[in-house]
Design goal:
Layout: H1 2-29, E1 32-33, E2 45-46, H2 49-63, H3 72-91, H4 95-110, H5 135-153, H6 159-175, H7 181-201, H8 215-235, H9 243-246, H10 251-266, H11 279-285, H12 290-314, H13 318-324, H14 326-348
Antiparallel strand pairs: 1-2
Helix pairs in contact: 1-2, 1-7, 2-3, 2-7, 2-8, 3-4, 3-8, 4-5, 5-8, 5-10, 6-7, 6-8, 6-12, 10-14, 11-12
């Protein structure tokens, strides 16, 4: 435990130092987020959080005992994603190229150690639903999906980082129940690095707005890390029986992404087009401040993660955990539908329009 605490402190401090070092350099290379019609933060903000988190995680992991280090393929694959994200933040890389690189990076992460989702668990009560030849394609789809879920979630200070921190914490709790010191150490390092970033990104009494953003480099890093360690943890559980329960740990960003994709397609727009219809934007429209909206989303992530963790530790059946996800999905849909209805009805009822101009994080998708 003492070793874990030392590495955790290293990762936190390294992230803080890295951010302080990269802040000024970001302006020289153009790695900044500029205000626009969709970005109301009102100033140029360095996009160095992702680079700092990856650098601190990499160094802290390499400083640990060999048995506690993150797998080389994970470091290589996430390194490629971080590089892609940093380049995208500066050059605005086409979506098709980003998708191809994401798939390649996901393959680098999962194929060497064959960390794949081989089973969806006992969803029908008749034994585990094995994926067979579909295991690898499903795993790549799962990873790329989570990478983009966190990428799309990054639209308000502290939301994506807070959601990832919750997932890392609950995954570490689950992994700590077995002899998985390497997994636990990597998760705690990721959690610590994320908390170091949130010190500069989360709004608090000493900072009324974010000092840095994570950028695409950070959101893709966090999404890939959550996906990989969810798969790794599921594979280490008896018969992979806990995979449906682990879905609860990142249900909020996934449901938000799926909901947005459906609504955008229904409106005849690209699923990757930008708007202000994320869950945190809806809370802003209901009158929450940016800090309150962020806190609400992170609390929801923590509560969902607690349900999933309890399901794993208590041995709740896969059927209950899987079908139970329909409840938050239904509540999310109801919330979105009521908000959309209110927006349409407001002019007819002569209700003053709700203010959606609250300052938010740089990237709105």
């Amino acid at each position: 435990m003492q070793s874990h605490l030392t590495h955790i402190l290293n990762a936190f401090l390294l992230t803080v130092v890295a951010i302080l070092m990269l802040e000024r350099a970001a302006f020289r290379v153009g790695l900044v987020d500029r205000p626009s019609a969709r970005k109301n933060h009102g100033r140029h903000v360095p996009l160095v959080g992702g680079l700092a988190m990856f650098a601190s995680f990499l160094v802290a992991s390499l400083l640990a005992d060999e048995s506690l280090r993150a797998p080389w393929n994970f470091l290589l694959g996430t390194g490629a994603l971080v590089l892609l994200g940093a380049l995208d933040d500066v050059l605005d890389i086409p979506a098709a190229i980003k998708l191809i690189v994401q798939i390649i990076a996901a393959a680098i992460i999962v194929i060497p150690g064959w960390s794949i989702v081989g089973s969806l668990g006992n969803l029908l009560g008749e034994g585990n639903l094995e994926l067979g030849v579909l295991a690898l394609p499903f795993t790549l789809l799962f990873m790329v999906g989570l990478i983009n879920s966190f990428n799309m979630l990054d639209g308000l200070d502290g939301v994506a980082g807070g959601a990832a921190a919750c997932a890392f914490f609950w995954l570490a709790v689950i992994a700590s129940t077995g002899s998985r010191d390497g997994t636990v150490n990597s998760l705690l390092l990721l959690l610590s690095a994320t908390l170091g970033f949130l010190t500069f990104n989360m709004r608090h009494p000493w900072s009324r707005q974010a000092r840095v953003f994570m950028g695409d480099a950070g959101s893709m890093l966090l999404g890939a890390a959550v996906a990989f360690f969810a798969i790794s943890t599921a594979r280490q559980l008896p018969g992979e029986a806990g995979f449906p329960a682990l879905l609860w740990l990142f249900a909020v960003p996934v449901l938000d992404t799926l909901s947005l994709i459906v609504r955008r397609l229904w409106a005849g727009r690209s699923p990757f087009s930008a708007d202000r219809q994320h869950l945190h934007h809806l809370f802003l429209e209901y009158g929450a401040t940016p800090g309150q909206a962020s806190a609400i989303v992170v609390i929801l992530c923590a509560l969902h993660g607690a349900v999933g963790t309890a399901g794993v530790l208590l041995g709740v059946s896969d059927q209950v955990m899987a079908w139970g996800l329909l409840l938050p999905a239904a509540l999310h849909t109801l919330f979105v539908f009521r908000r959309s209805t209110a927006r349409i009805a407001a002019p007819l009822l002569r209700v003053p329009s709700l203010d959606t101009s609250a300052p938010s994080n740089g990237r709105q998708t």
